[in-house]
């Protein structure tokens, strides 16, 4: 999929993180920084958010969490 800009509401929805948490983690270097796309507008690259999610998932699995499994409705 080609890279695209995503705005804060979509980043919040994708990551399930709050706006304050996102900006605190940006300051700590734990979350991708946004890119200025206008005088008063910022956005994130979708690939940066996808990489962050993949890293979080990998960290969870490394720390001993079980990989989630999908259960069918018939179970």
Describe the structure.
The protein is globular. It is of the alpha+beta class and 75 residues long. The mean pLDDT is 88. A hairpin with a 2-residue loop joins β2 and β3. A three-stranded antiparallel sheet has the order 1-3-2. The protein is built from three helices and three strands; from the N terminus they run βααββα.
Structural class: alpha+beta
**Arithmetic mean of pLDDT:** 88
CATH architecture: Orthogonal Bundle
Q: Quaternary state, please?
A: single chain
Largest beta sheet, briefly? 3 strands, antiparallel
Within the CATH hierarchy, at the fold level, what is the topology? Recoverin, domain 1
Alpha carbon gap, first and last residue = 34 Å
User: Which band does the percent of strand residues land in?
Assistant: 5-15%
The radius of gyration is 15 Å
Number of domains: 1
- Low-pLDDT runs: none
Keywords:
single chain, alpha+beta, Recoverin, domain 1, 47% helix
Give a brief description.
With about 80 residues, the chain is an alpha+beta fold.
